Amino acid sequence: MIVRDTNIIVALLDKKDAHHKNALRTLEDLGNERVYVLNTNLSEIYSVIARRCRARKYDCREALVMVRELEANINVIWIENPQEIHAEVVDGVIEGKGELSYNDVVLLKYAKDEKATLITFDKQLKVEYQSI
Asked: Which of 29, 52, 71, 89 is most buried, most CB within 10 Å of its CB?
């Protein structure tokens, strides 16, 4: 199983993103492999796209509609009860001195627990993932 970080999806959608070409290559390299996104990352995708549009003074509605349409074609894993893992995730954020976001720690925990392959452009998250 392969799970994608938020930055992969955002880079695919945002042609001005520094990782856009890498994201396209990554997608091509995966071929027909099933790839998943956690629901926590999905919410982050909406937030990042909206924030970028506002920063660039674009009307974000069109971009957000594109995300919603893309969502129909993404395999989303819905974490059933985030309350059960909350304390562990917060501990991970604290132990990492804030280097990883809450969503990053959730994604890292999921990849570790499910023995999933994690794809990300986040250097710190890669280092943490490779250490498990």
From this structure: 89
DSSP secondary structure letters along 1-56: -EEE-HHHHHHHH-TTSTTHHHHHHHHHHHTT--EEEEHHHHHHHHHHHHHHHHHT
Instruction: Name the DSSP letter for residue 101.
Output: -
Q: What is the CATH number of domain 2-123?
A: 3.40.50.1010
What's the pLDDT tens digit per position in 41-69?
999 999 999 999 999 999 999 889 989 99
Nearest to 90 by CA among 132, 79, 5, 82: 82
Where do the domains of the chain lie?
2-123
Tokens of 65: 């509609």
Task: Note the pTM of the prediction, 2 decimals.
Answer: 0.86
Per the structure block, which two tokens stand in for 12? 């695919």
Across the chain, mean pLDDT equals: 92
